[in-house]
Design a protein that fits this description.
By secondary structure, the protein is of the alpha+beta class. The chain has one domain. The chain is built from four helices and three strands. A three-stranded mixed sheet has the order 1-2-3. Strand 1 and strand 2 form a beta hairpin. The longest helix is centred in the middle third of the chain and has 13 residues. The termini are far apart.
Length: about 100
């Protein structure tokens, strides 16, 4: 059976995936962009868990790394999508709330 990485690459050879294969366990599947074809979908919670387990990062360091080096690394129309599971009520934004605070919900 082919991995999700391989299946996505077969459907869209231009689809970008996170370089480190350690993140393959965070691939949830794929989604269809209206203009750009199929791209990979990653589970953000699993990425954070991988950063903490395999790269020995603290929770805060993992979120910082994710925010600036993964989520913030838009590299074109085939960039992956990152899913943020909502397991509790989303808080109302505060004046000082930034996008990385929302990710930590």
């Amino acid at each position: 059976m082919e991995s999700l990485r391989e299946q996505i690459a077969q459907i869209n050879e231009d689809a970008l995936l996170l370089e480190e294969e350690e993140f393959d366990e965070a691939i949830m599947g794929m989604t269809q962009h209206a203009k750009h074809g199929v791209v990979a979908v990653y589970d953000t919670d699993k990425i954070i868990d991988i950063l903490m387990r395999k790269f020995s990062m603290t929770d805060d360091d993992a979120w910082d790394h994710f925010g600036y080096n993964i989520l913030g690394a838009y590299v074109g129309e085939h960039t992956p999508v990152f899913f943020f599971p909502v397991t509790e009520e989303i808080p109302q934004p505060k004046a000082t709330l930034n996008k990385f605070d929302i990710m930590k919900v």
